Amino acid sequence: MAGDHEQRETPVSMTLAEARDLLARANRILAHEGVLDAFGHVSLRHPTNSQRYLLSRSRGPELVQPEDVLEFDLDSAPIKPPTARLYSERVIHGEIFKARPEVMAVCHHHASSILPFCVTGTVMRPVNHLGATMGVKVPLWDSRDEFGNTNLIVAKPEEGASLARALGPNWTVLMRRHGATVAGRTLEELVFRCIYTVRNAAMQIQAEMLGGFEPLNAEETELAGSFNLQPGPLDRAWEYWSARLDKVEGANTAKLKVSKVKRAAPKTAAASKSAKKKATKRVKRRR
Amino acid sequence: MAGDHEQRETPVSMTLAEARDLLARANRILAHEGVLDAFGHVSLRHPTNSQRYLLSRSRGPELVQPEDVLEFDLDSAPIKPPTARLYSERVIHGEIFKARPEVMAVCHHHASSILPFCVTGTVMRPVNHLGATMGVKVPLWDSRDEFGNTNLIVAKPEEGASLARALGPNWTVLMRRHGATVAGRTLEELVFRCIYTVRNAAMQIQAEMLGGFEPLNAEETELAGSFNLQPGPLDRAWEYWSARLDKVEGANTAKLKVSKVKRAAPKTAAASKSAKKKATKRVKRRR
Amino acid sequence: MAGDHEQRETPVSMTLAEARDLLARANRILAHEGVLDAFGHVSLRHPTNSQRYLLSRSRGPELVQPEDVLEFDLDSAPIKPPTARLYSERVIHGEIFKARPEVMAVCHHHASSILPFCVTGTVMRPVNHLGATMGVKVPLWDSRDEFGNTNLIVAKPEEGASLARALGPNWTVLMRRHGATVAGRTLEELVFRCIYTVRNAAMQIQAEMLGGFEPLNAEETELAGSFNLQPGPLDRAWEYWSARLDKVEGANTAKLKVSKVKRAAPKTAAASKSAKKKATKRVKRRR
Amino acid sequence: MAGDHEQRETPVSMTLAEARDLLARANRILAHEGVLDAFGHVSLRHPTNSQRYLLSRSRGPELVQPEDVLEFDLDSAPIKPPTARLYSERVIHGEIFKARPEVMAVCHHHASSILPFCVTGTVMRPVNHLGATMGVKVPLWDSRDEFGNTNLIVAKPEEGASLARALGPNWTVLMRRHGATVAGRTLEELVFRCIYTVRNAAMQIQAEMLGGFEPLNAEETELAGSFNLQPGPLDRAWEYWSARLDKVEGANTAKLKVSKVKRAAPKTAAASKSAKKKATKRVKRRR
Q: Are A66 and A134 in contact (CB under 8 A)?
């Protein structure tokens, strides 16, 4: 989305260990907030090698721990020989990371409120400023167009590439008779977009049933989407979902604040200043 | 609402500490009962200075503690220099406190059941006596009318003032493509109105889908609304939501009854009698 | 309902203490299962004096303990001078106990799934055998017919009597723009009927939205309703809801089995045999 | 479903004790995931005697423990004289086990999202690949056709046989004005099919309300259904639901992995190799 608001970026000085931990948390947050269940998955581009990405082994997201997180190249081949099952649909992530250099995180899900839009002609539209984070345009991809009747699993590189083409420069793509795939410039932005798009979909269905639904227009969608993806709202929402997860997992939030921030040694003095600034952001983010 | 029923008032003898504690609890009650999530906020006019109000720093309401509660003047400027982010939309509170001297509490939310009414032409109406607390009239405000396409955030004083004008003498105003703002003569009344209006909205949508919906008429709405905002129903509901919150937070209710009531020294003998009567009320309220 | 199936009766040898404990549990079960929230109430006719009934003081049902349970005469006057607020609408219970000698328990509620039927013309009908317990006929009472515009609270004896007349020989009566009132020949039957009628209502709304809803016919409703109100299904459901309540309250179920059965000394040898048989039933019921 | 994908089978080397434990867990998983409540039940064909099946005594599934699981012959007579009530509708299981030698598990339920399809003319169809596990065809059985007005309880052998005929070679049969019955080639497959069919039904109702619902076609349904019933997806989902159950029950998953796998001594060297391979599968399954 255009605009010169401060973009939130997963800092390049994040270590691989921090990235695995953050991604594992994002898995469990998205599960706890109803976006993911036994199926679906979320990835994070490698913090120091843009030609790799991180994704859990095949496991329900609610259960994902840092040690489950594996590394893949952009062809979705595992870097190390796998000792556990892998997600069949990991090409969804690899192909989007290839097509979109600015995308740092991808989520594929089958959230219940979204599916009705994937099997009818109704276009997903924002009901309010928070849903505007879905993006101005939400394309619809139908595997049948290119591939005919399949088992609907996006497992082949060409299927992932087709989906990435359908996503285009947008942030959310619906997959006919399947679910949705969402992209973000940071993991926090991705999580925010997933959750609020899922909430928005449920409200839109209710509005469609009342009749006379008038959504945000394109300019409102751009302005509101940009606003809500600034650090203020993103931090506030992440802290909230993170604290809720901690409650459910019985963790001590204060303890977590300390333990989750593992600061990498900066490479240069300039990077040091930058790292210091970003580390301060990371502390706030992990509440 | 007219009528000579006993009005429940947040007693003027409440100390600032008690007010901050009560407001923090109201934040967490509204979050726990599904009115607020990561976003939205609730305020309380200062107990001893009507030209100030209390509002948390920018934080998900479910997490708000007394120490998060800050003081603002009615232009929504913080009294002390802020050390944390502030809610962007605090002018909603300040402008309503200016416009409505009898209002002691305000809540701004985006509850899911309300949004469908904010994006369609359907008028919100009470399905039963509890929903009647929404008020006889629920106006609809559209920021586009005065301000054109915006990011929908009510951040500028003139936007807050416009919303306050739309609210008028009513208790609930819907905000097109955004959410709702609710006012109350006490914090308990506000919380009651928020929760039961949200429940009512969900039931009204179901009724609209069955067809042939006939709500309460204006006189029933006034009579039922008045009745349910008396101390009896308000206390009962507050005790219920408070106890549910305590269960979730793992608190000991008996312990809370003692610790939460911090009695202020009354100023005069007359105030002493009055304070004694109101303190008795406060004990019941905080269960 | 006609039929010579074994009827489940709250045994006359239950002591007052056991009755208060059972009623308090029923309050908390109905709250936990979504029939009651801050409002609504449930009563039990006195186990040894049919001219009295038991009802909690005014309190959210989720919080009701045995010591909250008070005694009333059938004019709904408290037997002892009250030291706490009483439910304004207790005449609902008293008037139904007067009109229906076989009724041992009454519940008044505002469950969300029922309200849409209270404000539209749609008739409540069973979707399956469990919902058949609502009864073959579910009348609709409108306070406006006799009383014009009111605050909808059924507080006056004549209002309660009017409602009891509308209930007639049936088991469930809907109250326009208010909620529902349900009767039962035992407390277990009442709880079963309340919960399954509330579940049924939600399913019927969905069925109405799909279109072409065909409910159980009158004979199926009678047969299925009778079947499900036998001791087998009633015990099974009570055990289930009771165990769920214990989990939420952190109680030890095994401990409860022993402690909750306080056997009264039977009056005669015949009553002794009968009491022994009913005590065995009570053990099963309280699991 | 046709296809040469690896089928997951409950291994014949499972002991009776392991089978009872697995079935008890399946009961509690299905209750926790919203398929079963106080009513409904799930069975497993005896691991070493195809002329018998396992089913709990009459009890809410959420409460079923291994010691509740009893043995029945295919006429649904208990092998040992019963000391507790039995499910009235156990003939549903016996008759399907008779009619379908490949079926190893059966579930009968009244899940809320399914009932609207049981009382209207709407045909249940998959919205996505996970719902495709319902099968290509979902027949509808109406007890009234053969038996006229009844209490809707499928208690007589001829009623169970009629239902089994209606199920035919399919995997899910809807029961008019009652609920549904589901079959599976293994218990894990059955649980997966139950849960995802229930989720699918809720999404289909929403899609029907938006209008223009286009489901998976027959070939997609076959391909997607087959894919999702392979060990990969089945294991992942079982682990997820099992872990969620453990959290709710406060159990230690690591501890459970060890205690639940009781390996039977294999009969021959060949069986030993096979048992070793299947035991490895069992360890993964029980996570």
A: no
Could you give the angle at the alpha carbon of A16 between the alpha carbons of A11 and A20, nearest 5°? 95
Is the interface score ipTM higher than 0.90? no
Counted across chains B and C, CB pairs separated by less than 8 A come out at: 105
The Cβ-side half-sphere exposure at D55, using a 13 Å CA radius, reads 34
Please tell me if residue C32 touches chain B, with a CB cutoff of 8 Å.
Answer: no
A178 and D223 within 8 Å at the Cβ level: the answer is no
pLDDT on residue A251: 62
* B151 vs A contacts (CB less than 8 Å): 129, 220, 223-224, 226-227
Q: What is the pTM of this model?
A: 0.88
Assess contact for C28 and C61: CB atoms under 8 A: yes
pLDDT tens for B102-161 read 999 999 999 999 999 999 989 999 999 999 999 999 999 999 999 999 999 999 999 999
CA A219 to chain CA centroid, nearest Å:
24
Look at the block and give the residue holding tokens 């929903």.
B131
Using CA atoms, how far apart are residues B96 and C16, in angstroms rounded to an integer?
A: 54
User: What's the confidence (pLDDT) of residue C264?
Assistant: 28
Which of D33, D125, D127, D283 is most worth mutating to test chain A (most A CB atoms within 10 A of its CB)?
A: D127
Give the mean pLDDT of D81-106.
Answer: 97
Burial class (CB in 10 A: 0-12, 13-18, 19+), D283: middle
Q: If contacts are CB pairs under 8 Å, which of residues 72-101 in chain D contact chain C?
A: 85, 88
* pLDDT tens figures, A117-147: 999 989 999 999 999 999 999 999 999 999 9
Contact list in A for residue D223 (CB cut-off 8 A) is 149-152
Q: Name the minimum distance, in Å, from the CA of D16 to any CA of chain C.
A: 26
Neighbouring chains of A at 3+ CB pairs under 8 Å are: B, D
Task: For residue D165, give Cα distances in angstroms to B158, D73, D173, D177.
Answer: 71, 19, 10, 18
- The bridge status of strand D41-45 relative to strand C41-45 is unpaired
* Contacting residues for C149 by C-beta, under 8 A, at least 6 apart: B217, B219, B220, B223
pLDDT of residue C250: 83
pLDDT at D121: 85
Check CB contact of C65 with chain B, cutoff 8 Å: no
Q: Are D118 and C127 in contact (CB under 8 A)?
A: yes
Q: Which residue in A18, A33, A89, A159 is the catalytic one?
A: A89
